[in-house]
Amino acid sequence: MATDIIKAVEQAGVVGAGGAGFPTHIKLQAKAGVVIANGCECEPLSHSDRHLMQNEPQAIIEGLTLAMQASGAKEGIVAVKAKNKAAIQALSAHLPQDKPISLHELKDYYPIGDEHLLVYEVTGKLVPPQGIPPQIEVVVCNVATLYNIVKAMQKVPVTHRYVTVMGEVAEPKTVSVPIGLSLGELLVLAGGNLTDNPAYILGGPMMGQLVYDEKLPVTKTTGALLVLDRNHSLILKKRFRVKNSRRQAASYCYQCKDCTQTCPRSLLGHDLSPHETMRQTGYAATKAALSNINAGLCSGCGLCEAYACRMGLSPLEANRRVLKDKTKCASPAAVPTPHPLRDIRFVPSGRLISRLGLRAYNIAVPYDSVRYTPQSVNLPLNQHVGAPAKALVSKGERVRVGQLVAETPTGELGAKLHSPIAGRVVETEPGLLIKH
Ligand code: SF4
Ligand code: SF4
Questions:
Q1: Is 268 a member of any domain?
Q2: What pLDDT, in 10s, does the model give residues 69-116?
Q3: Which domain covers residue 310, as residue numbers?
Q4: Is the pTM of this model over 0.85?
Q5: Which of 265, 305, 323 to mutate to test ligand 2, by most ligand atoms within 8 A of the CB atom?
Q6: How far is CA 58 from CA 14, 49, 69, 418, in A?
């Protein structure tokens, strides 16, 4: 049975839909005692997971059961924020009496979706720093991934996903759209931009990618699109961060340690001190000094730059620079000890939203059940962790809805890709362009 599930998941091209894009058929091969369904919807403002949980509670519980069967887990836990009452109500109505599956209600703070934090909150167990949950026999799957596992068992490949469009749009909403749909068309579905000078954050405001091109496509890992004016403070901060230099770290960082005292990985007991990263990269910057920085422990959550630092500095970017320099990192301690003040240093999502200047967009967003079929889709071949997929179709070839059109070569980490529309292949590089 486990092999059947894993095979079906591989054939359907299921990858981590929460943003990671890790091939799910590999994840499910881990042996686990517990599977956590991650429905915490970590990024502020996003609604796509809660809408999926409200609309498809039965499928999510079924997907969790399948993930438990594949990994041999005896227990399943759906982790949802307590504030998402409609999702909790919907899921509660479908909890099976004959299986050890339960709900775990989470507090509303950021970044609870980080697997290290989530596993600790839900099970009380600590994943080793730089490790992954299967090392302590835990598997974490996003709820959208679980939904795709159920579809895979019905031989339906991943061709659509829920996306929340929010911010400066006329009708913020969540819609289910084909993979490969352009951001421009997605914006039309949300009533269009309200600003003439837009910038887009693909994903949530904290970890999302700043982009300007409306031709970019929705991928298997796109859960949200945030539209803001280019002069919004969050956009300026993301732009400035990219230019954040060593000289700025040396000039402006006054070693207040607020970044370290807020850093969720540091509070979990990981040997990561963003203020130290700033000091070492700003002043010392010798190979020996940099090798003492455990930059690889940084989750990229962005709290240090977006919330903690009053000087507008980015310890996150400093960590990335250390990693980019390929400096060998010190070996982190095997068993972390959470900080005694951890509980009072959580950053509530509401406070974070205010700090980001996004309060005006923190509104109830509806789900729109409209079904939209675009005239063309643009399918990047690298929508997953691992080696890019290779096209299996040629220019001019006609394809059906759901047809396998690209896959990663056998033996390499990767995933399969299917066409969300019927049409003709127009381009095969750098991605697949398919037109009606
Ligand atoms: S919060 Fe900012 S100023 Fe304070 S130590 Fe961190 S980087 Fe430096
Ligand atoms: S981004 Fe900053 S706050 Fe988040 S884990 Fe990395 S150093 Fe810590």
A1: yes
A2: 999 999 999 999 999 999 999 999 999 998 899 999 999 999 999 999
A3: 246-342
A4: yes
A5: 265
A6: 19, 14, 17, 25
